[in-house]
Amino acid sequence: MATVKMPQLGETVTEGTVGRWLKKVGEAVAKYEPLLEVETDKVASEIPSPFAGTLAKILVEEGTTVPVGAAVCEINESASAGATPVQQTAPLTTSGNASQSAVSAVPAVSNVEQPAAQRLQVAVRDGIRYSPAVRKLAREHRLDLGQLTGSGRGGRLTAKDVMQHVESGSARFSPAAQAASAVTSVSPERPAPVAAHVKPAAVAPPAEGDTAIRVTQMRKTIAEHMVLSKTTIPHAWSMVEADLTDLVKWREREKDAFKAREGVNLTYLPIVVLAVCGALREFPMVNATWAGDKIILRKQINVGIAVDIEDGLVVPVIKDADHMSLSGVARKLVDLVNKARSRKLTMEEMSDGTITVDNTGALGSIASYPIINPPQAAIITTEAIVKRPWVVNDAIAIRSIMNLCLSLDHRVLDGSVASRFLQSVKRRLETFTGTA
Length: 436
Hints:
Elements (H helix, E strand, L loop, with lengths): L1 E4 L9 E7 L6 E2 L4 E6 L4 E5 L4 E6 L6 E3 L3 E7 L38 H4 L3 E3 L2 E3 L1 H10 L17 H9 L7 H9 L33 H16 L2 E9 L1 H18 L5 H15 L5 E3 L4 E3 L5 E3 L1 E3 L2 E3 L2 E2 L7 H16 L13 E4 L19 E5 L3 E7 L2 E15 L5 H16 L6
Parallel strand pairs: 14-18, 18-19
Antiparallel strand pairs: 1-8, 2-4, 2-7, 3-6, 4-5, 6-8, 9-10, 11-21, 12-13, 14-17, 15-16, 19-21, 20-21
Helix pairs in contact: 2-3, 7-8, 7-9
């Protein structure tokens, strides 16, 4: 009987949540065939089976969080299959030709086999071991972990236990944490703490006809990030109207030749990305991060693209987007969107964004107030292009108009800088002729 263990999906990842089993007990599974989906706070990945055989036993139910190296299932190997798995230290990804899958499998990692630095990531307090995720949540919510009961193996306290305790409204603050929070300043490595713990509103249990939907790890992470953003970042908002009539005509003329030449569709989103990059070079303060006692201006322009998938919203990042051509950005967008929707994004492709672009207009929106993706200082949305009566040379004409909306971190940016940045994006779109 072979054992499959929880893989490490990133250098700093110490645990994962079983999101969905792709095979049932008793079903045959081929070597490298997707076996289960594992979710972390960054990505959700399909994990391939390191063995060929029959799924004999599921040891971890869907929605359960376990540490890296914990056994998740047992496979009764086929007689013709080798028992030694091929080790993997990263999620299955696709690189280069989309038809070539990375051949890798789940590692059988024990605590003894892990590097010393990784083993030390689990801290001991009062004789009890707590994972980094648990300690982080305890700091954020100022909890006394000694008052919580764990549901993990051997009574281990998991991040899920902590969040359930917080959401229940029965959280008991740690006096030491409360005292520390009164004198602790914000550091560049740590986001500003929430000013006060707010007891959630009481929720009536599901009634007859109601449906209770399990909150996935991705949805929990989205919720936590949005609460962090709205409680620690003073949002401000601005909007401008852009006359894209000339751009619409240019795209109509060029799209067929572009598709034949580049192999991807010419959409408005890569054009917006180039316009944003040009405006960031003109106003570098927008490409910045609040770091408590300093503001860090980022040299790299890494544009995050909000992608709507089945479980929520993910934001893969186009690194050094300002160094790319229109065709390069268009191809990269297609690659990242396909990976996002097939759950193949890596941690590297989800990290280090310096600004986010959200194409809310694709869903018919004409104006939106986006929430900033911390620790970035701004997020811009492109709304639907609609035909409207417009004044041109003191005459009424029908033009193609798009609203551009910007949310900004008012700690980093004043309204004047943000407005000039937004005007720069508008000007670049209205005068676009193939380059930004």
